[in-house]
Design a protein that fits this description.
about 75% helix; mainly alpha; 19 helices
């Protein structure tokens, strides 16, 4: 009888390394493709928050109240749509065949397709059609025109956003590192898209000659700010055309087709045989009920809302701050945000290392400090030293990139492998959009009895500090609320749990025709219920 050579490895290390490299290559393909799925939304969001308000006021010649009302309408529609889409998307995912790898991804893709088509059709009509030319002096008709397409656009945007975010748990199958990588890729795509918008806007506004102010309808002033006017409508038409055509290429062609292809071809990478969620599709309404009973869900939601509010406020009012407070030329509304997001892109190169070293919560606190320092800088910049807005914008860009990635990582870890991911993202987005709309409407209608120059300094320099304080409180509550071991306990739950008596609770698992339940459903749903009981 021959003896086994114990010194010889049973599996050649070179074969293992080659297999690992092949797997990494496949995962990189999935990761890159995932990043392309939100580019249409990212392009539209960059122009929506940076230019929509100034476009309504300076180009469409609407009043401040009407402009604020339109932005509020968009945010409210978005807020209402997100949780509804989240629930519907989870219902679709719950119908996925557990024996078909990647089927949950395929069930969510139609939602993304619908939303992207709606965005591609409605968004350009906000800029391309000259509503004033069509409806003349009828301000009501002009506002109704914009309100119609703002509503359609926000429904589509919310549908795309939530269905895209909900793919993260499906594509990461419980691997925390994959969640971080997907979030980082998504944010990098957001930054690149935003930079592209500002580069094109810079080129368009920079080539608009002095004849911009020759129009009879020009609203320019003699304050040296080179204000935008209705004469700049042509530049915004071209910008909208660029955004729509580029977004369609990535979101509707590359992402939709590519994601279907790779999930079918590399489906084995989307299966975790040790995950307690495999083979179990908890009912969407039951997972929703359980999320609503978890305290940490609300703490993380407040943190997410404050994070988005800080970024949105700065992005929305930066253009008006540059034009009115610093009296900078109109090209600055492209160059300053360009510096901000280019710095943000550079920041993404070191974000992964920072988060890995100090953790999500500490990274978030560091980012808050950077954003506050940048806001203080924006508040104190004198008009005769307006060039210093660029270092402040760069600091805010780097800090906001760390802030967003840390925030999304905390959200992804909250969800883990639990069902109802689309509902969670939808609920958080609801609070984000509703708060942003309410704050913008409040800013547009409030009268502080100060000049416009001082008013916009307060908006970009002081108001973010109050939001940051609430964000820090919420992240502290997140870190001290239920012991993270409860998540690990759930994620590590195996079938032996049934022997500990967990099979007595029916939480979201469907009865068979004979009244019995599968062992996997009992174990999974009972541990899920047990987890949320600990959260209460």
């Amino acid at each position: 009888m021959s003896e086994v050579n114990e010194d010889k490895p049973l599996i050649d290390a070179a074969i293992v390394d080659e297999a690992n490299e092949r797997e990494k290559s496949k995962l990189r393909q999935i990761q890159i493709l995932y990043g392309t799925g939100h580019i249409l939304n990212d392009l539209c969001a960059a122009s929506w928050f940076s230019y929509m308000l100034v476009f309504f006021e300076r180009v469409a010649s609407l009043s401040g109240a009407s402009s604020g009302a339109l932005v509020l309408l968009g945010q409210v529609v978005d807020a209402i749509t997100t949780p509804l889409v989240g629930i519907g998307c989870d219902v679709s995912a719950s119908k996925a065949d557990p024996n078909v790898p990647g089927d949950t991804v395929h069930k969510r893709l139609p939602w993304h397709l619908f939303g992207s088509i709606l965005v591609a059709v409605s968004y350009p009509l906000l800029f391309i059609e000259d509503a004033q030319f069509t409806y003349g002096s009828s301000s009501t008709a002009v506002v109704l025109w914009y309100a119609t397409f703002v509503t359609l656009f926000q429904i589509g945007w919310a549908t795309t956003q939530i269905s895209h975010l909900a793919l993260i748990p499906d594509l990461s199958v419980g691997k925390a590192s994959r969640k971080t990588s997907l979030n980082a890729t998504r944010y990098a795509a957001t930054v690149l898209s935003t930079v592209a918008v500002y580069v094109v806007a810079w080129a368009l506004l920079g080539t608009a000659g002095s004849d911009d102010h020759s129009s009879d309808n020009s609203t320019s002033t003699d304050d040296g700010s080179s204000n935008l006017s209705r004469a700049n409508h042509g530049q915004f038409k071209i910008l909208a055309t660029f955004i729509t055509s580029t977004g369609i290429l990535f979101a509707l062609i590359i992402f939709q087709n590519g994601m279907r292809f790779v999930t079918k071809k590399y489906g084995e990478l989307l299966v975790d045989p040790e995950s307690p969620t495999n083979g179990s599709n908890a009912k969407a309404k039951d997972s929703t009920r359980m999320w609503l009973h978890c305290k940490k869900f609300y703490y993380v939601g407040i943190m997410y809302m404050c994070t988005r509010l800080m970024v949105n406020m700065t992005q929305t009012y930066l253009a008006l701050y540059l034009l009115d407070s610093l009296k900078m030329p109109k090209t600055s509304i492209a160059t300053a945000p360009l510096v901000l997001y280019a710095s943000s892109l550079l920041g993404t190169a070191v974000i992964g290392g920072i988060v890995k070293r100090v953790g999500d919560s500490v990274s978030y606190a560091i980012a808050i400090g950077g954003c506050l320092a940048a806001s203080a800088g924006l508040y104190s910049i004198p008009e005769d030293n307006s060039w210093t807005v660029y270092p402040a914008a760069a600091l805010f860009g780097i800090s906001s990139s760390l802030l967003m990635v840390s925030c999304l990582s905390i959200v992804a870890k909250l969800i883990g492998d639990l069902p109802g991911s689309a509902f969670v993202y939808g609920a958080f987005s609801f609070s984000d959009k509703l708060s942003s709309g309410a704050v913008i409407m409040g800013i547009q209608t409030i009268d502080l009895n100060v000049s416009d120059a001082q008013f916009y300094r307060l908006v970009v320099g002081v108001m973010p500090a109050f939001v940051a304080a609430l964000a820090l409180i919420s992240v502290i509550l997140c870190s001290v609320s239920p012991d993270p071991s409860s998540w690990e306990d759930y994620q590590g739950a195996r079938s032996p749990a049934a022997s500990r008596g967990y099979g007595t609770i029916n939480a979201g698992c469907s009865d068979d025709d004979d009244g019995s339940q599968s062992v996997i459903s009992i174990v999974h749903n009972t541990r899920l219920e047990d987890h949320f009981t600990e959260c209460e």
